[in-house]
Amino acid sequence: LRIAPGLWEAYVNLGGAAMAQGRVEEAVEHFAGAVRLNPRDAQARRALKAAMEAARTRALRPLRLGGGDPP
Description:
Blueprint: H1 8-20, H2 24-37, H3 42-65
Helix pairs in contact: 1-2, 1-3, 2-3
């Protein structure tokens, strides 16, 4: 990315690699970078949406594991 910072495809690839390794927050950042550079790319937008949903699910997981309502 240092050599070609405008190469949105690189951000998509990095995001995909991060997702495959379970680094969801990092993937969101990469996919968001791709969308910033090329907002018309449907693949980048879909990937960003999926990563954001995965991040949300991950963030809510501790609440589900605790059961019941918080005190």
